[in-house]
Specification:
Bound molecules: zinc ion
CATH superfamily: Glycoside hydrolase/deacetylase
Shape: globular
Helix content: 25-40%
Strand content: 5-15%
Number of strands: 11
CATH topology: TIM Barrel
Distance between the termini: 40 Å
Order of helices and strands: EHEHHEHEHEEEEEHHEHHEH
Structural class: alpha/beta
Mean pLDDT: 92
Length: 283
Amino acid sequence: MKPAAVMNALTVDVEDYFQVSALAPVIDRASWDSRPCRVERNVQRLLALFERRGARATFFTLGWIAERYPQLVRDIVAGGHELASHGYGHLRASDQSRDEFLDDIRRAKSLLEDIAGQPVLGYRAPSFSIGYGNPWAFDVLQEAGYRYSSSVYPVQHDHYGMPDAPRFAYSARPGLTEVPVTTTRLLGRNLPAGGGGYFRLAPYELSRWAIQRVNRIDRRPAIFYMHPWEIDPEQPRVPGTSLKTRFRHYVNLHKTEARLDRLLGDFSWGRMDEVFNLKHNAS
Ligand SMILES: [Zn+2]
C-alpha cells in the first residue's frame, strides 16, 4: 500500500566504481583515466528506470565525470532531473585545505553549469565529509555560490558521521541550507534511513520501514542516496581490498536494481530543490 503522499528526495552520487572512497587506498588516482568506465551505461539505466517510474531525482555529479561525459550531463537535465555537484575530484572535504576545497568545488560548479547551461545550486561532499573538524566548509560553499548542501550524515559510522547534528534541513550560513541525509530515531539513537550500503546489505523491508517512519512520525520527506555502480554486478573487481570493504562494496549488487524499482513504486520521488523548496535560496 502506498503511504501518504509525501514526496521524498531521490539522489544519485554520479561517480564510477574506481572513485569510491573505500577503494581509494588501493586505487591510485593517476590510474583513473586508464580504467574502463562504467558510469555512462549505469546512469543511462537509472535514467530509464526513473522515467518508467515517473520519478525525478537530483544527480550530484563529479566534475571529473562531467568533463569526460558531457552528453551524460545533458541527458540528466533533459530527463527533468536536477543537476548538482559532487565536487571535481572526489576528495573528502576533510582531507583538503580550505583553498584546495574552494578550488575543487568551484571547478565542478563551473564545469557543470557550462555544460548544462543552468545554475547549479546543490553540493554533496564525498563520504559526507563535512563534520566536527571542518565547519569552515560551509563558509567555502557559500563563497563558491552554492545554495544548499547535503553533506552531513547524523549517524555513527567508521568513515563519516556527525551523530548529534540536526536531523532535518537547517540554515548552515545565510543563504546556505544544509539538508542532512535521512535518519530515523529509535531508542535514543539515529539509524541510517537514507540508502547507500544499508539499502543493499539489509533486507528491503528495513529501508521501507525507516522511510515510512520518517514520513509518518516526523512528517518529513526522506532523502535516499545511491551510486550508479550499485546496480552493476559486472563491474571489474578491485584486488587488494579488505574483507569488510569487499563485503560493503560487492554484496547484493545483482539485487539492487530490482530493489530500487520496488522502492520507486512504494513511494513518490522528486528532486532536492523541489522537495525541500530550495530554489527560493537563489537570489
Ligand atoms: Zn561519492
